[in-house]
Prior knowledge:
The structure holds 2 protein chains of 2 kinds. Chain A is α/β, with parallel strands linked by helices. In chain A, 30% of the residues lie in helices and 19% in strands. In chain A, helix 11 (328-337) links the parallel strand 16 and strand 17 (343-347). The radius of gyration of chain A is 28 Å and the shape is globular. Residues 1-29 of chain A have low confidence and may be disordered. Chain B has a 3-stranded mixed sheet with strand order 2-1-3.
Amino acid sequence: MMEQRRDFDGENGTSRRTRAKGIAQSEPGVDRIRALPDSILIRILSLLPARDAARTLVIPSFGRLWTSIYDLDFDWFVYHDCSGNSSWHCCSYDEGALSRFAELVRRVLALHQGGRIRKFRLRFEFSIDRQLDELMPLELEPEELEIMIRNGGLAGEVNRWIEFAASRNVEVLDLDFLACGLSNVGYKYELPSFVLQSSFLTELKLVSCKVNLSADIVMRALKVLCLKEIALSDDSIKNFIDGCPVLESLTVLDCYGLCELNCGSQELRSVTVAPGILEESRVKVACPNIKSLSISGWIERLELESLSSLRDASIDFCDCFLCVPDEYCEVQKILEELHHVRVLTMHHHPILVLTVWELMNLPCPSNSWQRLILRTMLTKWHLPGIANVLRSSPSLEVLVIHIIPGEVPSIDAQEAWLQLYKICEGNYWDLQDRSFGCLANCLRIVRVSGDIMKDHVIQLVQFLLREALVLQKLVVSTGPNDSSISVKESKEFSDKLLSFPRGSPQAVVVFSNA
Amino acid sequence: MATSRKVTLLSSDGESFEVEQSVAVESITIKDSIEEGSAGNPIPVPKVNSKILAKVIEYCKKHVESAKAEDRVDDEDLVAWDADFVKVDQATLFDLIRAANFLNIKSLLDLTCQTVADMIKGKTPEEKRKTFTIRNDFTPEEEEEVRRENQWAFE
Lengths: 514, 155
């Protein structure tokens, strides 16, 4: 008792031990966290990964509010961080991380008090190798083994976690059982069928699990569906589409067995599809009412049909693009199918194809693209491609170039291919003598961002400023992660930029170093 | 061409702000009271002082303007503008949270709450206490016990 009185400093309204810790108090006795209503604190805590939210239990101001969060985000990244490794590094299975991760999920779910869960996310590499090692010596019958694997051990636990979320009427379910693991290897988790019969789900994302395709699929409220690395059969996509009458967005990536993507629904607005490397047959995409289409992966397998309502599209290929000239006719066909969209996004592989066409004097298919978004590195191999598309796009009003870091494509096969084509050194744009229709007549806005501290960038920007006669605005900004640019470099760049002659008298030039 | 209607908002400390109705109705609270016909003129905004109300109006104006702009490229601009908008001292940030909650402006509430969440994420309890000037803390012994009982969260 005596200790408490000595401890509390009545005059200043603070406890001595708080001041002794040297904590700065801008206003005496103010605890801003406690002053906020519980509903807002729960809202803030729900924005945190589950482990961070749980850790607020050591701070009395938060009390036990963390047990009422309505978004549960469990990502094993906090126990297994392999982001520093190169993309070719294979992680050996991290049993320790799995066991700490599973304990976290168990505890959080056991202590959770809120009546409702809006979003439930799991991301970890599902592996039952250890369980199989234990079961093998028992020499069980195949059916018995099957039951043990499907309902016992890790799979059984994951079933219970998902049941927990479903019992709280979860609306957004994001389940990634692959994480950083190798795809298409090992025994996959089988998703319980009741998930595909939920009337509460509005968004479902599944990565690398088995889906029981013979069961009924009825998700009356589902608006967003994303499937990645899921084995499908002929009718399965049709079953998904038929069972989800209000579906607005469909994404199918690397799903072996996808044959057709037909949807005449008025609700479906956007489709993203990337045929995987194992895909043997053609994949037909026929969705006459969609507004937005994004394709990547092995696009040679794609057959696009009836896309009359399409307004924006995005195109990319996978790294293992076989650079045989005949195969480019697939790309040409696709660009022709997309000639009428308003907004086109191109990643760096398609631009390299445009470069090859430019060097062979083949134009990019004529089009009516109004806005072009390029997400690419900017090397000398990309410049002819950019020139090609600018020349072939007479309706272009807005050009956005986001420059990703990187030099020549990294795979040896592609390096060899690129050496076949002669590209002059020096300022590519000074050598251009043909006219660029869109620059003279309609290009009004240019935005360049990302890894901009490169000669190619400054030369391209100089060219655009000179030739774009009706330009209204040019914005150049550094990327969000570019902390390496010094103030001096930034000033030099900005000065140079502002000194370039402008073909359009009303052009406004903005340089932003965020 | 629609006539631009203006409304007047009155802060808790008696200052008046004239704004377009389209900006004012970013606040569902204000929108509802206008539609119900129960809004006075000027519309009183209790609990929100002039300094904070000015900031809220600035936010709503920017977002209404951006929604009108044809060029969707400005989405990136808006994200950068929002990031700058919340670079304020803590007292102001928390006042903005309360104002956004009372006035029911979802996007502002999301933005400000996310800012606080980002301040919490990844910090140790000690760092959190320093950031938020929290009082009535556990004693070191009490904290040790809570941690021990909940070791799973600190693995």
